[in-house]
Task: structure prediction
Amino acid sequence: MNSLGARRTAVLLVAINKLEVLAITKQLVGLDQVLEDFDGLITLYMDIIGQRILNYIHHSSIPDGLKYTWAAMTAAALQAEQMAVLFPPDPEDAEAYEVSLGDSTVKPIKPVAKLATGPSLVVQDAVLFDYQSELNGFRRMRW
Result:
């Protein structure tokens, strides 16, 4: 086998299985492994955070050593923006108080779970900044 074939085989052996990262992310967030309701949302976050990792470390694929870091970064982004979607508040448990002061009255509104289209740029940057020390060990110089 030539060196190119051996290199391709090695790359295939160390490629991260996205299903493993999905399972780890679900575990970190606290979701049931068999519940597939949010797999699309979690996968979207995984893909976007994975692309940010690749852009930062200058690799063509995410190294196996970053599997748990990738899952932790995805979980951090989900927890920052999607907790109301992943764990909707129970309307029965919400304590609603009407507060009156003089002629002003304040009534609480029901929490609304809004499904985002993906992690915001602010959250992506914050998560990347938080995990830079772990990513730096895999970073390559670009010429």
Remarks:
- The two ends are 30 Å apart (CA to CA).
- Confidence is low (pLDDT under 50) at residues 6-14.
